[in-house]
Amino acid sequence: MSTAPSPLVGRSVLVTGGSGFLGSHVVDALRARGVTEVVVPRSSEFDLTEAGPTRAMFQRHRPDVVIHLAARVGGIGANRRQPGTFFRDNMAMGLHVLEEARRAGTAKVVVAGTICAYPKFAPVPFREDDLWNGYPEETNAPYGVAKKAVLVMAQAYRQEFGSNFVVVFPVNLYGPRDNFDLEDSHVIPAMIRKFVDADARGERSVTLWGDGTPTREFLYVDDAAAGLVMAAERYDSPDPVNLGAGFEISMRDLAGTIARAAGYTGDVGWDASRPNGQARRMLDVSRARERFGFSASTPFADGVAQTLAWYREHRHEIAAREAARKAP
Ligand SMILES: NC(=O)c1ccc[n+]([C@@H]2O[C@H](COP(=O)([O-])OP(=O)(O)OC[C@H]3O[C@@H](n4cnc5c(N)ncnc54)[C@H](OP(=O)(O)O)[C@@H]3O)[C@@H](O)[C@H]2O)c1
Questions:
Q1: pLDDT for res 63
Q2: In a domain, 328, yes or no
Q3: Is 222 exposed, middle or buried (0-12, 13-18, 19+ CB in 10 A)?
Q4: Binding pocket residue ranges, ligand 1, CB within 6 Å
Q5: CATH at residue 71
Q6: How far is CA 157 from CA 98, 117, 181, 213, 238, in A?
Q7: Does 123 reside within a domain?
Q8: What is the average per-residue pLDDT within 102-130?
Q9: In this model, does residue 1 exceed pLDDT 90?
Q10: What is the pLDDT of residues 235-288, one digit of tens each?
Q11: Is 143 among the residues known to form the active site?
Q12: Would you say residue 98 lies in a domain?
């Protein structure tokens, strides 16, 4: 990130979802840039799927800038189990946050979209101009379409009310403090957990979802946080911007990379009865570089090593928390 003083210094920045995986890293990045007034509202106090609590949050905190990350998030399994909930909650949170920011006269809102908004058959690498050229992959379409509708709202509010609302579209993220619960985690934490736990228990076989052919791109969470802060500091345009690392890896190669890093030497099987999701995913990352100077800096191997180290350090407390939650 730039070493020039941040234009956010001296302003109050509210991060919805600031206690979540990405949000906690955004809060760290803001503090590292010298922003001292960082507000992290919790869902237990302000449920952003409801208009009243969202308005109360703006009235209480009167932020200058909002980074809107609160969302219902999960992997393919969670998206398939609760498509209605994913659509409703993400739509409602975007709707209420942007409307209440407009009413409150908030100077700027940065919204996190998602790569799941892209059409199922978008040409690779995905360019922002292709966002509307088709329907998303079915397993995550309700989540992706809700996020895409928030982009339209941000653009329409800019046009009608002059609101400085910008929307960035991060690719799949990974890193320390990710969700490692196998019920609703994304692919990297799920693989790390399976390989580390299998190795610790002396198991010689791990089964992964799908047939291993799909490709994905992954952005280290600290890089994503830097991109969001840079957008908050410097970007003012209706055009959506991808946030990615600009590389593509197959699930099979990803499994090999993570198994080796975890020290797991047993067999890897694929359960092809489980969905693959979209066949290929990789973003064109040139717009973020051109518009606000963002490019990812963490090598993938380093990011995987950091994430693995974090999971090793926290795996017992994660398992204990899950057991307590599931206890009758
Ligand atoms: N993770 C990824 O790979 C990825 C990729 C692309 C885009 N994104 C986007 O990045 C953002 C953050 O994702 P994440 O992975 O960090 O998610 P996360 O760890 O699940 O965090 C979600 C946050 O949303 C808040 N939240 C949920 N429901 C809420 C409600 N009804 N009212 C108020 N707050 C609510 C939670 O707050 P409490 O803790 O207070 O309940 C939590 O802090 C999301 O917008 C997501 O779409 C994520």
A1: 98
A2: no
A3: buried
A4: 16-17, 19-23, 42-43, 47-49, 69-73, 112, 114, 170, 172-173, 179, 186
A5: 3.40.50.720
A6: 8, 20, 37, 41, 10
A7: yes
A8: 97
A9: no
A10: 999 999 999 999 999 999 999 999 999 999 999 999 999 888 889 999 999 999
A11: yes
A12: yes
- The reported pLDDT for the residue numbered 275 is 85
- Closest C-alpha to 252, from 271, 233, 268: 268
**How many Å lie between the centroid of ligand 1 and the Cα of residue 283?**
21
Tokens (6 digits) for 167: 């929307």
Number of domains making up the chain = 1
- Nearest ligand 1 atom, CA 89: 31
The residue segments making up the domain with residue 207 are 13-319
Q: For tokens 């909930």, name the residue.
A: 85
Quote the pTM value.
0.96
pLDDT mean over 75-90: 92
d(CA 184, CA 181): 6
